[in-house]
Structures are given as C-alpha cells and as structure tokens.
Amino acid sequence: MLIRNGILLPLEEGDAPVRGDLRVGDGQIEAVDQSLALIEGEEVVDAAGCFILPGLISVGADLQDTLLLDAEQAATSRMSSQVCDTKRLRELLRSEALIHSVAAGAERLLRQGVTTILSVNEPSLSDRVFSTALDAGVRLIGAPCLRASLGDAATQLQGITEQIHRWHGSNEGRSQVAVAVDTPLQCSNELLQQGASLAFENDLLLHCNLMLSKEMVDEINVRAGCHAVEFLMEMGCLSSQTLLSGCHHLGAEEPNFLFGTGTHVVDIGASPDGLCDDGSSRAALVDNGVSVALGTPVGGGQVIDLARRGRAIGWTPQATLQQCIEGGARAIGMDDRLGFLQAGFAADLIIVEGAHGPADPHDVVLKASQEHTIRDVMVAGDFSVRNGALQCSQVSSRAEDIVESVVDALQAESGNS
Q: Which domains does the chain show, CATH number per domain?
C-alpha cells in the first residue's frame, strides 16, 4: 500500500512538516520519502490535505469498565422505585456487559487516534478482554492485576504465566502481556515481590497502582513506616520496566525516590491542574527527570482532553503529541518499533484532515482526537478506521442496549414485575 501526498507531521520541537509518501507492507512501514514510485498493483491511499503521524498510545485504560458505570447508573435509575441490590446488579452487568464494554472502549479510543492500549483487567476476564479488543482492531497490552483478595500468590502467578503463553506476542505481535499489582494495601509483600519478579524475569512491563485517596496514603505510611514510593522501592517494584499509576497524592519529596529508577508515571488526570495533590505537580515530576506518560481515566471510553492535560504540565501542543506518541512508546518499552515514521517501525498511523488551514497542525490533530474526527486509523498495516468509519465493529457499544435484560433479570429474581 502507498500512502501519497500527505504532510508528515514531526514531533520534535523545531522540525517543520514535510510533504511525503509512505509505503506499508507486512504490518510495517517499508519506506518513507518525499516521493515514492508506484509499484504495479499497489493500493494507493490519497492523503492530500492530511497530516500523517504515528498512532497515539494510551497507558492505564480500563476497557472492561467502559460501559459499566453508565449502565449501572441507568439500571439503578430504572429500578429507583424498588429496592435495588446494587451488588447483584453489578454482578449481572459485569457478566452481560463485558464484551460490549471492552469493544466500546477500544472503539472510542480508536476514534481518538489511539492505536495501542495498555488495559489493566481482572485475571479471570483477561482472555475475553484480549479477544474482544483485538477483534476491534487495536494493539493491546493486557495487564491482569494481582491482589490478595483473589487467592494465594502461587495460583495467581500461575494464571498469569499461562496467559503469557497464550497471548504474549500473538496476533502478529498485536497482543502483549504485562503484570499489574494493586495498591500496597491490597497486595501482600509476597505478592508485590513475586509479581515484580515475574514481570522482570520475562521482560514484561510491571504496572503498579500506588494509591487512590489521601486516606490510603496515610494508611500506607503507617503500615510501611515510610512513603509509598519508598516502600515500592524496597519491594523491588521500581525499574525502567515499571509504570506507576495512582500518584494523586505524592508527598513533595517522593519524586526524589522515583528519579534515577527509570520508572514511568502514568498521568490519568485525577485533578484538573496537577497529577498530585500535596505539593508535587506534574511539572515537578518532569523537572525532576521523571517520565510522565499521558493515560486514560478509569473507563476506557472517556474522552481524553489531551490539549488541556498538556497545558497543565506546560507543554506545547507539539510536545503534548510527542509525549502521547514517543513518550508512550518509551513508557511501554516499545520505542524500537512504535512511535516513529521510520522504515522498519510498525505501521500504526493516523491520517488527519485539515492541512490546508493556518492553524497550528499539532492543535489540529489534538482537536480531531478530542472530537473523534480523525479520518483514518491504521494498526499493523490494516485500517481500523477508514474515512471516519470503524471497520471492525461487531457488537453494540451503547450502555442502554445492555440495561434492559439486566433490569428484567434483577426484577425476576426479586419477584417484581
């Protein structure tokens, strides 16, 4: 396939956009030049008036919960006149909605130009998350999450080992496995240490969820006798293969522990103006040499306001895109194959209309991502979105479509009509 006459959008500050062609074959970029000769029989994609750049990378999405919150709210509203067993409601929704939910998250992120997703999920649901997301047309890094409530460490680790054999590197390299560990309050020391060992010994990513609230921070400090980040260092969890999320309440000195470990912090935008609420901002982490990768809020279908998040750190639109693409590739350890328009790299591309106007081209791309108006999205050389239309949509992705049967089942169980 030859993609012709596009504007190759640079991500390095100071580099100017250039008109050029790309040749794609076997899932990779085969050649990039200002003008490539057409090979007989080759498919041609006209990108005149469009920007071409690598696909965005989202770390920390929660695909399995994309629709569950919306569906739970809708179902609870429908049951408002009756006594509603919310625990049973969520159980039914989770069973009924999983495939729809994962598909919805993957499809919405594809429309934003995201081609690679790291999704943390329950180990028992991993196989269904993998198969559904890959069918939707994304590149997926699935991270089954270890926690004490799920059973003994040996059984959980064995389950992840089996998933590594099933999924890691399969689907022409579109599926990868990572290891996730829950917060230090929900994992034993043994589980944290063995989860880290499993990841590092198999050259996998380790996703650590640090904390969710100020109360959790205080409890971790009391139990461990030190700051949460320092505790994870003692457990052997921090390295260049580690993604650290849930950093909403870091103490001012904690970036010092992260500096030098190579750990990447996942910014899921918990607060409007800063990643951390206790004096340590996104900018402070960046200034201290800590790599910050932009992630997705819980529920992978939520729209990511990348431009706003970049401004909060002090990044230009160009730097924001660079962090979402090259920075994301570094964070997941795949910057040798993703994130660059170079021969030999994966053909994960987005094509965005709007190259004729006077607006900042990087602003144009960020706006198209925000508004779901990206023209084409390619993953591993195949179009997942073509001319604005999803190519692999197989299931309904609306919360309303799964509420009816769940409400009926719950009413039947409670004897209500």
A: 2-54+340-388 (2.30.40.10), 61-331 (3.20.20.140)
pLDDT digits (tens, 9 = 90+) for 375-394: 999 999 999 999 999 888 65
The one-letter code for the residue type at 36 is L
Whole-model pTM: value is 0.87
> Residue 179's closest CA among 165, 191, 202, 195?
195
pLDDT at 96: 64
Read off the tokens for 217.
């921070």
How do residues 290-334 score in pLDDT, each as one tens digit?
777 776 554 444 556 777 777 776 788 898 898 889 988 988 999
- Helices and strands in the chain: count of H runs, count of E runs: 14, 18
DSSP 3-state percent helix, strand, coil across the chain (nearest 5): 40, 20, 40
Run of H or E residues at 305: none
Structure tokens at 245: 């999320």
Q: What is the Cα gyration radius of the chain?
A: 22
Q: Which residues does 301 contact at the CB level (< 8 Å), separation at least 6?
A: 66, 67, 104, 105, 108, 109, 397
Q: Indicate the length of the chain as a whole number.
A: 417
User: Whole-angstrom Cα distance, residue 75 to residue 408?
Assistant: 10
Residue type, 209: N
Residue type, 103: A
Residue carrying structure tokens 């190259």: 355
Q: What sign for the dihedral angle of Cα 300, 97, 125, 111?
A: negative
Spatial CB neighbours of 396, under 8 Å, sequence gap ≥ 6: 100, 402
**Do residues 167 and 130 make contact, with C-beta atoms less than 8 angstroms apart?**
yes
- What distance in Å separates the CA atoms of residue 384 and residue 390, rounded to the nearest whole number? 6
pLDDT tens per residue across span 140-166: 999 999 999 888 889 999 999 999 999
Instruction: Name the token pair of 229.
Output: 């980040």
Helix, strand or coil, per DSSP, at residue 126 = helix
User: Token pair of 211, please?
Assistant: 């904390």
